[in-house]
Amino acid sequence: MIDRKITIKDIASEAGVSPTLVSFTLNNTISFNGERKYKVSEQTAKRILDVAARHNYKPNNAARSLRSKHSRAIGVVLSDISNKFFSDIARQIEERAYFYNYTVMFGSTDEKVEKLGKVVDSFIEKGIDGLVVVPCEGSESLIKEVVERGIPLVLLDRSVDEPGVSSVVLDNEGAARMAVEKLLAGGFKRIEMISYNMALSNIAEREQGYVQTMQRVGLGDYVKVHKVDYANIEESGKELFSSLDFSQIDALFFATNSLALAGMRVLNRLGLTTPNDVGVVVFDGNEAFDLYPSTITYLKQPIEQFATLSIDMVIALVEKSCQESRKVVLDAELVEGESSTHP
Amino acid sequence: MIDRKITIKDIASEAGVSPTLVSFTLNNTISFNGERKYKVSEQTAKRILDVAARHNYKPNNAARSLRSKHSRAIGVVLSDISNKFFSDIARQIEERAYFYNYTVMFGSTDEKVEKLGKVVDSFIEKGIDGLVVVPCEGSESLIKEVVERGIPLVLLDRSVDEPGVSSVVLDNEGAARMAVEKLLAGGFKRIEMISYNMALSNIAEREQGYVQTMQRVGLGDYVKVHKVDYANIEESGKELFSSLDFSQIDALFFATNSLALAGMRVLNRLGLTTPNDVGVVVFDGNEAFDLYPSTITYLKQPIEQFATLSIDMVIALVEKSCQESRKVVLDAELVEGESSTHP
DNA sequence: CTGAAAGCGCTTACAG
DNA sequence: CTGAAAGCGCTTACAG
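Structure tokens for the assembled complex are given below, as produced in the milestone run.
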């Protein structure tokens, strides 16, 4: 912590007032006394403000936190900040927090609940006011505990089955439906899905959206959800793809961007292209697709809203302007490319 | 900030000792008295530790910071955390900081010095102990000011011309030399470079490495450094490429990954492929290249070392275990693909 | 409208 | 080895 010599006391003595008044002025506090509210007189205020400005006064954050019991810091626990989807969110979260003069600290779980626990603990020890968390498999009890300890919490991207927990998620079922319908409209029938072997709400909902849409249009017989091992995408994906009979598959719907990237790498190697050999719709855009010979149809998630809302909501909880939990569901947008239309 | 009821005082009274002793015990402090050093007696220590553990005691971070004058927080200012190169670094920085029980806050400048100033100011106000900064164009005076204020600082990825400033950078000249030599060995002669119109040390050094290598092998006549506008890569790049006569160019050396991505997108559109129509070497790998028909030769930067060293160095400065500034230069590694060999 | 005073939870000389 | 006491720089009832 860097010494900022000037304190409220210095300003007080230089302005010839009490520290109390300096604090009131700088924080724009109104003091109550029975019925009447008082503000610092304009004259005094001006004098104080002048002195503070002249010395470039900055309040000491630690002192303020110690006294006021809040730190204006939020802990954000993501799956992996080096993953483009999450780093995009991180960027927006940063900006939003800065806007409110809040600070954020990031942590990554790599989808491991033990890491989630460690990161959350360390954030709490560091004195955060609230948490934004992307929960991972098996984190229900941990989440519950956080909520029960009264720590303001907003879940992001995925939710868990706990009452009273706020969350900002995508309408994954709806998004999956859009994807499947686009492929159907594009002339594909035998659509199969590539997903993860993880029990995450968003993944489950995407699978559900796929299955239900297929059944609704009478293609239930073609429904097939292939599960790739998250911890080992590359190898597991390669193995899976070599077992698929692409003469029996019209199109693939990828549950995440990482899966799509890995999958298309394998398709490439197998000499298969989209949309010629197989239709494709994926979750999230990726600059990688720009180097692909044809354009890819993808579901665009509202990154900025994810970030903005989760920060707004956690701050509302922290500052008690909102007490009850809220669940917000956002819509994906389908961005059409060539990969979803049979040539 | 979340209430952690238990304080040092509570533990003291429950263990029947003074707060001083609790603090000493918990922090493993040794007290001096003239010649002799004293530790808390084992018996007492055990009693205190037991009580603390039973109540799951966590020290109050704000109080500790206020008193000790340091926060165990580092501010890290990157160019853009949603850029893969920097988010990879961010991830490693996080882990390293966590290892030392330090906290880090991230900020992005978008290469704008005004933003750099804002972020640095806000970090200082928040009470960071030190800074890791990726400086941008025109940030010399700002950097100088930070150093003069005695704020521990380590520059990352790029350096500035100020004495006494620590930095962790790449041997960019050497890396560029490797790239050019690889292309030469691959059978390309007329090698041109695609770079930015920015005055950054790393960019300048890469250009220098390219120019010098070309001259050294007697190809000075072919030297050409094309500058793309950073704020407008896409359009500026398109414009540039449409003005190039590819029948007169054997190979392109891209100064950054973003440039390479943009450039290869345009090449794609022009119907040009590597290595058939033009040789290519780029900075940094990118999963995007996996979807490209041929593999790309790239210079791999030591991301983990960037992160680890910058954090280690700034902490050393903070904790005064190291007073003088250090400049560390790391080597890139050339990862060979098909794009650097003439077919 | 303004000020004196307490206190947030620690750390750290100082004294014994 | 251990403890009493001061103090870090704020905020906030309370009193006038």
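Chain B is about 45% helix and 20% strand. Chain B has three domains: 8-59, 69-170+303-330, 172-301+334-340. Further analysis is deferred to the final report.
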